[in-house]
Amino acid sequence: MEIIETVYALDRFLRPFRDEGKSIGLVPTMGSLHEGHVALVKQCVGANDVSVVSVFVNPTQFNDKEDFRLYPCNSEADCKLLESLGVTVAFVPSVEEMYPEPDTRVFDFGMLDKVMEGRFRPGHFNGVAQIVSKLFYAVKPSRAYFGEKDFQQLAIVRDMVRQLAIPVEIVGVPIVREESGLALSSRNLRLSDEQRQKAAEIYRSLRFSADFVGKKSIQETIDFVTNRINQIESLRVEYFDIVDGNTLQSVSDWNESAYIVGCIAVFCGDVRLIDNISYKN
Ligand code: PAF
Question: Among candidates 222, 233, 281, which has minimal Cα distance to 257?
Fold first, then answer.
């Protein structure tokens, strides 16, 4: 596996493959790789001639400086894991490499980023679009892989690709969960064992509520999930929205859309966790 740190060297390495018409897959990550990333990488390696995994903690998507400072980072272990998975290139740039000057681009995602994560993390998706577009320009991938855990991010990336007319196929990969149901996340590393057990209640409540479709109202479902999770000491729901899976706007009735998803953000102590469940698809 090549470990490449600059856009120039990456382009030089990938150019012959592009010229030969080989497919290039990209998995953008912020490192601290776990089984969720492994699922993305395996899918990428299996479907493409060349696979690139970027490991870069992107400062522009952190609206909270403390969250950025505390974000776990272990690029040596990450590279070892990527090598064992058959990845062709680990792209590990510095902040100066990706942002030689401040990125002043402002994206307009309409209502897509005004809700849920966008509401509670202002500027977050603009930062995601900045780095993901730069990675797409650098790698020029045929396909790029994103986890469905970050449901809103996936919708934003698809919209960005549409707006910028970037010729890349965006592939969403299902959430990988611990045995307890807790969605895998690099942030889980910051949970104590006890917190980890409590955090499993997030998905347990979501799953329980899947039975409510068409039986209880949307508001009753929201109240049920929110109250059940908030009852657990050290868990606090920041939002739980039931939305149209395409527009991400709240629905008020189960018949309003054929694609309905519940998206949640919960603080477990000071660690912020997100998850989602597809109610109708
Ligand atoms: O999902 C993530 O880890 C990040 O938001 C991404 C897509 C790698 C951009 O920094």
Answer: 281
